[in-house]
Structure prediction request, 214 residues.
Amino acid sequence: MAPQDRERLILDNALRFFAEHGLSGETRELARRLGVTQSLIYRYFPSKDVLIDRVYEKWLVEYWNPRWPSWITDRRQSLENRLLAFYRDYARMQHNYEWVRLFAYSGMDGLPYHARFVARNRALLFPLIAQELRYDHDMPSFDEIPLTEFEHEQIWAMHATLFHLGQRHWLFGLSGPTDVDGVMATRVRSFVTAGPPQIAAHLAALRAKRLASG
Prediction:
């Protein structure tokens, strides 16, 4: 097997292995599963910490679609349809055993990868969703009133539904809906209908407070 293919094989299997056993899983057991020696693993990955870091780098890249921002901002479609398309694909990529469990283990073991993933959502996706909702309902631009914590939390309430469903199933072994896309469609429709008046009132209150203090 070519070295790059061997490295990829070890990495692919390590991702599944650590999702199953947690980050305390031993490389000796991973080697046994692969049918290779432990020393062979360390030939490609000098330490277990290096292997775990590479697993998470793979996790960060492969469970993310760089086209999502452009989908959210494509004004040729309604915002509801854009969000529905985004969450269908988001669920396809992240509503699975490996993603959910590795996210959880990063947090429980005090590693930074789950926080990096959340930060990417907050930087690259949430502002676009808020921006498009404001645009659709003639609310102030970010130049006038920057994105607020209130708006972030409104988006989190929608976004976290998918995360919660994954936790129920792959962390706690609890039953959940079979139609995940249907659940997210309901959350999206609630956001695009109930969200605008709440956010508009919030922004109006901020504007009035600034005028009063000015």
Remarks:
- The chain has a mean pLDDT of 96.
